[in-house]
Structure formats: structure tokens, C-alpha cells
Amino acid sequence: MNNQDLLRIAEEFGDPVYVYDAEKIIFQYNRLISAFKDVENLRINYAVKALSNMSVLRLFNHLGAGLDTVSIQEVQIGLEAGVDPSKIIFTPNGVSLEEIEQAAELGVQINIDNLSILEQFGAKHPEVPVCIRINPHVMAGGNTNISVGHIDSKFGISIHQIPHTLRIVENTGMNINGIHMHTGSDILDIDVFLYASEILFESAKQFKDLEFLDFGSGFKVPYKEGDIETNIEELGQKLTKRFKDFCKSYGRKLTLAFEPGKFLVSEAGKFLVKVNVIKQTTSTVFAQVDSGFNHLIRPMFYGSRHEIHNISNSQGRERFYSVVGYICETDTFASNRKIEEIKEGDILSFSNAGAYSFSMASNYNSRFRPPEVLWYEGKAHLIRERETFEDLLKGQVAVDFEKLASVE
């Protein structure tokens, strides 16, 4: 998928628009599979929250992946996409017992991360296999909002509460078939990941009927040329050896599971916007585009960096611009960034827009959410239509104040 392809997509489907390259998704999936090729039983569960379009889920199902879900709605979308419930794991946080029971009725793998729900669910449904999410108390991740395995995190059952967990399991007679952890996202140092894995292995020893160990994900992807990323190949070599040793000592061949999201789809995504205005102030040249944090909130929420290129003038001389949106608050995508010379009407392409872009989009300022396009085998396929004014009004109920006033 080159710049000319992207320009044709912007012309055909309008702008702004999200575009996903299926070839890159497949490449990343196969790269992960290859890194752990010596693991006999490997399960890759795609983290739906990163990008939940049904066609993307169907692609992962076609590749053989399972799904990692965090809400009952994600479970239902996965089932609608044709994924077998046995290949879906449900890992919510802080949801009601009723939602977990609803997921169990659909036949998916349940993953529980607090003692209260564990005890309640075990007492009512001891026959349903349950995975336990532990908190390894390891600080890892590229931002405090995505570091979820530290001691003050709301996620997981503390490793110091394992004795209490075992008591609940014994009292209820429930079946614990998996142990899970997730330390955070954008993990660069694989030694931190391996250290946390040792904690998972140590915890797993205390449960006798396990079928799988889920190591979460959080692998870092590059955000600019020459950027550092998680060395998946080295991690695969080192963790595979350690996992095999654990299985031997445990006395049973287990499944090794991961739940990558960003790693699989981030680099596959481009977000295309049009430049409405070039605004020169006393100190800055603003390129004001037809989008804002209603469509791409990550730079404002996480401070994330997205490379920006002017695909309408890809060979142009680079100049410094601040790229900003049209929202009635500060929504800066890039400050004082070198970009190929920009004119009004040019199309800019934001990289790394596959993960947490559309899925975190909103109708703030009553703006429509853009369409989504999947580039597959050299063709552009519309996989979500652009929203319309009718979509904004859907579900709203108009109160007739004149009628109410006459009744009073």
C-alpha cells in the first residue's frame, strides 16, 4: 500500500478515513508465531480493544488466532465474527458478577481478577473452568496509564493474596485451568518481561490442574524510523526455553498464550486527513486539519507520537509545522514537526493509527466518526461506513416541552 493507493482511498471514501493494511497485520501475526515456533501449544489471542471492527476480527479468525475480550459486547462481536467461543478469553476488570455469568453462558474462557467475584462465581458455578489474573507487582509500560501490573494497580489479584485464592478454590471446589498476567504496554526491556514471567511460573506451581499460562502482551512497536521496539525474536528464544522447563517440572504440557493488540495492528493503520487551513502566527505555522482528538486521542491522552507525512507532496522540501485539529479545545497532533511542505487541501497521513484510534474515537463536538477501510490483496474494502446525522440522533428521545407545559 503506497502513497498513491492512500490518495485514491481518500478520494473514493472521503476524509478523514482510517485505512488498515491486512498484509502488515498478517506479517506481524506470523512474526509472533515464528518467534515461538518451538512451543508445541501456542495460542495468540488478539486483544479486541485495540481495533474491534468485525472484518478485522474475521481476518484474525481466518489466521487461526483467538480473541482477548474485556467486555460482554466484545465477546458478542467476536461471536458475530464467527470466532468459536472456545477461542475467546474474557478478561474484564471491575464488572458485575452478572456480566461474567453472561459470558460463561456463551461458552468463553472466564478470567477473574479479584477475590470477591472469584468466591461468588466459584460458589455458584464450580463446574465452570476459570483463569485467574494475578498482579505480579512489576512496574512496566511506556506510560502510567498503560502500566497495569504494579502494586497500586486496580488490575489482578496480588501475588501476596495467593494463599487466600487457594483457600477460595478449595472451599468452592472450582476448577482453575489458567493463570494470567499483564504488566503493561510498550514494554521495551524483555528482561522486565522475563522477570515478571518468573513470578507467573512461581504462582502457577501452586495450582495443580492448569491447562494454559497467559503472559499478556505489551510489546513495543516503533513509532518513527529507527525507533526501538521489543525484540520479539530474542524474547521468543528465551521464554520458550523457560516455558518448556516449567512444563517439564510441572508434569504436563501446557499452552502458552499471548494477547497482543497494538503489536498486531498499530503499524498496519494509517489515518488520512485533509488540511483545511495553513495559519501563520507570530511564532508558529499551523496546519489545521479536518479532524481532532475526537478521531485520534492518543497524542493528547498518552503523549504518543505518530509520524505525519504529506502524501500529496511526498517529495517536497521539509518545513516546520504544528498540526492541529478542529476541536474547540487544544488538540495538537504534532508541535514544530518537520513535514513535507503543506498546502491547503493536501492529504496528511498519520502512521501507527491501527490501534486505539477508531476504538477510542467519539462524537465530541457532534462530529461524525470516519469510515474504516481494509486494504487486502491490492484492493480497498469498506469495512465501516462514515457516520451520518441520523447516527448522531439515533437513540435520542425528544421531549415535547410545549405539550408538557399545556398539560401542567
Automatic annotation (TrEMBL):
Amino acids binding substrate: 298, 302, 329, 356
GO biological process: lysine biosynthetic process via diaminopimelate
Entry-annotated residues carrying N6-(pyridoxal phosphate)lysine: 49
Residues in Orn/DAP/Arg decarboxylase 2 N-terminal domain copies: 29-266
Domain of life per record: Bacteria
Catalytic site positions: 328 (proton donor)
Keyword field: Amino-acid biosynthesis, Decarboxylase, Lyase, Lysine biosynthesis, Pyridoxal phosphate
Top class in the EC scheme: lyase
Keyword Acyltransferase found: no
Catalytic activity: meso-2,6-diaminopimelate + H(+) = L-lysine + CO2
GO molecular function list: diaminopimelate decarboxylase activity; pyridoxal phosphate binding
Domain Orn/DAP/Arg decarboxylase 2 C-terminal: 18-354
UniProt-listed Enzyme Commission number(s): 4.1.1.20
Pathway: Amino-acid biosynthesis; L-lysine biosynthesis via DAP pathway; L-lysine from DL-2,6-diaminopimelate: step 1/1
Binding site for pyridoxal 5'-phosphate: 218, 356
Entry annotated with the keyword Lyase: yes
CC cofactor: pyridoxal 5'-phosphate
HAMAP family listed in its UniProt record: LysA (MF_02120)
Family in the record: Belongs to the Orn/Lys/Arg decarboxylase class-II family. LysA subfamily.
Function (record text): Specifically catalyzes the decarboxylation of meso-diaminopimelate (meso-DAP) to L-lysine.
Assembly description: Homodimer.
Protein name stated in the entry: Diaminopimelate decarboxylase
Native source species: Salinimicrobium marinum
